[in-house]
Amino acid sequence: MKKHLLFLAFSGLFLLSCSDDDTIVNPGPQDPDPVNYTSGSADFSTYVALGNSLTAGYSDAALFIDGQEASYPNMLAGSFAEAGGGAFTIPFMADNLGGATLGGTPILGNRLILDFSSGDPTPVPVSGQGTTEISNTLSGPFNNMGAPGSKSYHLLAPGYGNVAGVEAGLANPYYARFASGPTATILGDAAAQNATFFTLWIGSQDVLGYARSGGSGVDQTGNLDPSTYGSEDISDPNVVAGSIDAILQTMTANGAKGVLANIPDVTTVPFFTAVPHNPVPLDQATADLLNNAYAAYNGGLAQLQGLGVISAEEVARRTISFQAGESNAVVLIDEDLTDLTSFNPALINMRQATEEDLLVFTSQTIIGTLANPQDPTSINGVAVPLADEWVLTPEEQLAVQTATAAYNQAIAGLAQQYDLGLVDVNAYLTTVATTGITLSDGSTVTAEYATGGGFSLDGVHPSPRGYALLANQFIAVIEAKYGAELPEIDPLAYTGLYIN
């Protein structure tokens, strides 16, 4: 059923008699029949949301009050309130800056805004010092249990909200603000509220850290001990599945119903699509200079091909060539190339980027800068290859997509096993990235950085409008699964980009 009701005012001319003194009666505007919102077989009286930054309302590289209010769980709670839903509490940050301190020392940065002082809009942190102090713990319980940075297994980890462990990187600063105690778990604090309905969207961070680091971490598939993982590693799919299974066992133990969301293909978000592979402008003289500098490298590759060490295909992939124009590809390090340094130390694993490579959003801060301030020729991405952390190569993308597919297969199976609704966020955000979503006013929300309306300035997390569209995906699944009738969220009531 369509939820956006159009109230039509109309008037009619009614002939009351056929006499000469016939009168015209205007009944005035007529109210449509009211919509009877219902929860169906669900019970929204106590709703708890579990997840990471996507659940918390993280936006523009920070967590702040306006973003928390525009979180998809808070939007859902507003919709649920029309069908018997109860209060929804949020562990609000202290202000709208987003930064935070621990013992007075800044540990979290402020949210991003667009700065136009250079002529080109550039994302920069908003000025000022955030007043959120991590050690000032809040009294719960809180219905929004989203903690930015959480991987699937973190929701079960005792001490994940221990303030004393934050500085050492052993605890989560966001959860530390509202954990019920130093040994508490996110799952335990959520379960203590005896939820009648819950949403769970977890697992994206289990692969996102690897992707955002340009594949600098390790694919831990096959390693079932998450205590050995680094923050930039890909979690083993069995670890993710086992963690989600444990969460669902606990949350459904008292008969609560709920909805799961799967994991999007993170390589489609603006963080990986905003920076082109070929952003280097060169004049003819500089192009000639660079080609002369790389001649020895290219010649060394040809010699090793002649010796049968590498194939002609790899030589073609590794050969570096520049030309005058605006669109020269950057030079990068690729760990998956054949190691030739035993033959010649100068033949390092470098090549130029192609359309298949994804330069991470933060690479724009390094491309074109000097690796050595004393050497004006040491230009990063040109004379000095970009390090692995700045580029997600096709091989690294495959690792991300393989893990994502395995996570999503497990999530779909668990949704069926526990008889819960499943939101296909992966398919939905792929649509946003490919064709966009057309709204009622004719505008289209896309994944274009800063102008598309779907994502915030960090290039990873949705904008308020993007969160509203996602909330409607949850509502559609809840209605279909539980026979509920709920008001949709109007995405046009939320901004596509914070302007200050």
Can you describe this structure in just a few lines?
Helix 3 crosses helix 15, helix 7 (205-212) packs antiparallel against helix 13 (394-417) and helix 8 packs parallel to helix 13. The protein has 500 residues and is α/β, with parallel strands linked by helices.
Task: Give an account of the 3D structure.
Keywords: Signal. This is G-D-S-L family lipolytic protein. By secondary structure, the protein is α/β, with parallel strands linked by helices. The protein folds into two domains: 47-273 and 395-493, 3-Layer(aba) Sandwich (Rossmann fold), CATH 3.40.50.1110; 280-352 and 358-392, no CATH class. The chain contains 15 helices and 20 strands. It has a five-stranded parallel β-sheet, with helices on both faces. A hairpin with a 2-residue loop joins strand 4 and strand 5. Helix 3 packs across helix 15 and helix 8 runs parallel beside helix 13. It is elongated and about 75 Å long. It starts with 13 loop residues before the first strand and ends in an 18-residue tail after the last helix. Residues 1-22 have low confidence and may be disordered.
